[in-house]
Amino acid sequence: MASADQIKSLLKSHLDGDEERFFSIAMQVAANEARKGHGKLAQEIRALIDDARTEGGAAVAREPVSIARPRGELAELLAVSHPKIKLAEMILEKRLLNRLERIIREQRHIGKLMSHGLRPRQKLLLIGPPGCGKTMTASAMAGELGIPLFVVRLDGLITKYMGETSAKLRLIFDAMEQTRAVYLFDEFDSIGTHRGVTNDVGEIRRVLNSFLMFIEQVKTTSLVLAATNHPQSLDAALYRRFDDLLEYKLPSRLLIVKTLKARLSGYERVKVDFSEAAKASAGLSFADLARACEEAVKDRVIHERDSLTTEALVQAINERTSFQKDQAYSS
Question: If residue 123 lies in a helix (H) or strand (E), which one and from where to where?
Answer without folding.
Answer: strand 123-127
